[in-house]
Specification:
Pfam families: RPE65. This protein is mostly beta strands. 8% of the residues lie in helices and 41% in strands. The strands form nine sheets. Strands 16, 17, 20, 21, 22, 26 and 27 form a seven-stranded mixed β-sheet that branches.
């Protein structure tokens, strides 16, 4: 899997440049053959505007949200995109400046106001952003663009029109939810977010949105609460795990300092990034809760060395264990510190130097024993034949976990993971698909056999792909019988972007649909059949 491709021309800069939305869908030029059964829409979210007027956004997660759509029908493909009409977008366009503070970019008061108005604006507190650029997914029959705050945005999946802004705080006791929910077989959606617990302490709530209801969000509820290891410093959460019977929450050492958040948020120039800090002594904690009935397993205290975590790959149960596969970054240094646009848009040698200071990525498997007996103290509790992961019971009742490494390469990340979700979420599985990053630059698509550690790679010179989404072949009996869909940018080509369709079994190209426009970086998305 290790990439030998260098990028001295720095073409990757193009995926971090602003674009305009389209007035109508544009046709794609097809090379190869699109599978006849593949009919639907690929919806993707990401930043599309990296500056407003003469004010630049600074972080990869700051740019104003752009929703993309590739429509596939009868072997033909069209492409369309529109900006989400969030308050962040509308007010920025109206005032021609950054009005609402984003992840790594601070908003400043209007310079046209008099000094007294500006003074009170400084100390009024920043508004929470509704810039939903991270993901888009269905809730019931509707589609919502999301970020990680309490705001989500209802979007028409056909016209891409912005329909409604929804404040989750009206329905749930959460400060926000992740952009990576889980969907159960009956259509129930689960998610997690931090909240205020008893005595103003922080906790984590797992929430449930029921299926098949006219307004499912209004019927959402908290199903279980987990404690925070630090009273006023919740861990950053980007995703979580779900098996048939358990939820898995990994409490990482990257923390949100609540006091800093409440004080800095009222001072000119502060951003979300200013409120993060790393706990270099806590390591990483794993929490388990039962699913139905929901209950926190307080007696199961799992601990391991420090790592950053953004994406779970999969979790499943086997012979009395919960197996958890993760895309990790070693250590407690926050990876997002290295995703400022100044780093990502530098010359290639500068990009490499910056990445060398960042945590090392690694795909890991952890095994959590469910059946624990005190007489097993000091022993490895894992007896599964197919993994080298261990779990050792200590005298204080904690269980120290050591992982099996499924993939590790120097500055080579396997990230934005996908699986055959509809058939293998929460099940024992073999294949994961991911975006390969070289020094944080996306330059390949990777298939990983999590049982044998074999890898397959799609890569093309000066091409920058996105997260590969797996779509199963109708009636398929094999886990990897399907296609992968990825949006690829090839700067300098006559048609500089294309939808890539790969055979998921062999990772060979079936077709590509070229469009005559640059498509900026996309983060996550969904396929709508």
């Amino acid at each position: 899997m290790v990439s030998r491709v260098e990028h001295p021309a720095a073409g990757y800069r193009k995926i971090f440049e602003s674009v305009e939305e389209l007035t109508e869908p544009i046709p794609a030029k097809i090379t190869g053959v699109v599978p006849s059964w593949l009919g639907g829409s690929l919806l993707r979210m990401g930043p599309g505007l990296f500056e407003v007027g003469d004010e630049p956004f600074h972080h990869m997660f700051d740019g104003l949200a752009l929703v993309h759509k590739f429509d596939l029908k009868n072997g033909q493909v069209t492409y369309y995109r529109k900006f989400i009409r969030s308050d962040s977008y509308v007010r920025a366009m109206t005032e021609n400046r950054v009005v609402i503070t984003e992840f790594g970019t601070a908003a400043y008061p209007d310079p046209c106001k008099n000094i007294f108005s500006r003074f009170f604006t400084y100390f009024r507190g920043a508004e929470v952003t509704d810039n939903c650029l991270v993901n888009i997914y269905p809730i019931g029959e509707d589609f919502y663009a999301v970020t990680e705050t309490n705001y989500i945005t209802k979007v028409d999946p056909d016209s891409l029109e912005t329909l409604k802004k929804v404040d989750l705080c009206k329905y749930l006791s959460v400060n926000g939810l992740t952009a990576h929910p889980h969907t159960d077989t009956d259509g129930t959606i689960y998610n997690i977010g931090n909240c205020f617990g008893k005595n103003m302490s922080l906790a984590y709530n797992i929430v449930k949105i029921p299926p098949a209801h006219k307004d499912p969000i209004e019927k959402s509820q908290v199903v279980v609460q987990l404690p925070s290891s630090e009273r006023l410093k919740p861990s950053y959460i980007h995703s979580f795990g779900m098996t048939d019977n358990y939820f898995v929450f990994v409490e990482q050492p990257v923390k949100i300092n609540l006091l800093k958040f409440l004080t800095l948020w009222n001072i000119r120039g502060a951003t979300y990034m200013d409120c993060f800090e790393s706990n270099d002594s806590m390591g990483t904690l794993f929490h388990l809760t039962t699913k139905d009935p929901a209950g926190y397993l307080s007696s199961h205290k799992f601990r391991t060395s420090a790592f950053n975590l953004f994406h779970h790959i999969n979790a499943y149960e086997d012979e009395g264990y919960v197996i958890v596969d993760l895309c990790t970054w070693k250590g407690h240094d926050f990876v997002y510190n290295y995703l400022y646009l100044a780093n990502l848009k530098g010359e290639w040698e500068e990009v490499k130097r910056a990445a060398l200071r960042a945590p090392q990525p690694e795909v890991r498997r952890y095994v959590l024993p469910l059946d624990i007996h005190r007489e097993d103290q000091g022993k490895n509790l894992v007896s599964l034949s197919y993994t080298t992961a261990t779990a050792v019971l200590h005298s204080d009742g904690t269980i120290w976990l050591e992982p099996e490494v499924l993939f590790s390469g120097p500055r080579q990340a396997f990230e934005f993971p996908q699986i055959n979700y509809s058939q293998y979420r929460g099940k024992k599985y073999s294949f994961a698909y991911g975006l390969g990053l070289t020094h944080f630059i996306p330059d390949r698509i990777v298939k990983l056999n999590v049982q044998t550690k074999e890898t397959w790679v799609w890569q093309e010179e000066e091409c920058y792909p996105s997260e590969p989404l797996f779509v199963p072949t109708p009636g398929a009996t094999e886990e990897d019988d399907g296609v992968l869909l990825s949006v690829v940018v090839k700067p300098g080509a006559e048609r500089p972007s294309f939808l890539l369709i790969l055979d998921a079994m062999k990772l060979t190209e079936l077709a590509r649909a070229d469009v005559n426009t640059i498509i900026p970086v996309t983060l996550h998305g969904t396929y709508k059949p």
